[in-house]
Amino acid sequence: MIFNFRYKDELDNLKGVEGFIYKNYCSGSGSGRQYFSDENGKKIDAVRQKIEEWRITKPLSDNQYFFLLASLLENADAVANTASVYGAYLKHLKKSAQKTLILKPALFDFNDAIHEVFNEDANSLINKIEGDVLYLDPPYNARQYGANYHLLNTIARYDNFTPNGKTGLRNYERSKYCQKREVANVFENLIKNAKFKYIFLSYNNEGLMSEVEVRKIMEKYGRYDLATIEYQRFKADKTENRNHKATRTFEYLHILQKK
Question: Which of 4, 29, 34, 253 has the highest local Cβ count within 10 Å?
């Protein structure tokens, strides 16, 4: 196993420090934010700093380094004081956020398949890749993923910046998929340039593009079909977005067999 138990014991026994996470995202520091308990915020700082130190002194392989980071992120998320994503924190510590952070190894399924991971604009990447099946799950509203998961990005990067606003956001580039005026054009560009036999798009009825808009775009490029599933609206979503009074939402799976 990549996760050395000696590393686990040492990380679990670290004394918390008042680092970047505690100073900016815990109430005891006076930041006004409460994403983590003071104890867990200090523990996250201590573990994150130790992992970075080990990368230089151990030395850790890239696999070991990123495995430890993934383990920290998974376990930090388990004690986060949020309703779901990191767009907001709760006023009072919920029960799971009061638990002490314990570093458990991140879970991975090992197999013989070859995987490639890309970190770039999808509309640029689409010109470099091809295959049989393309599954798309873009942001569907104006709420950027960078805002929803900003604190996990901050723990991973552990860089110095000035957190913005009440929720302590970091600067990020806003996706065109989160912009009403841009989304249809950028989506059609992606579909047009995709060199895949089958394309699946997961979207819902509250997206910036309507079901009709998506269908009109996709059916230009081949045989189109649609599958719909009804869900009960997520409670945290109802709280954050008070404009929506509906208790149910519809998830669409748009299906295209390209010409």
Answer: 34
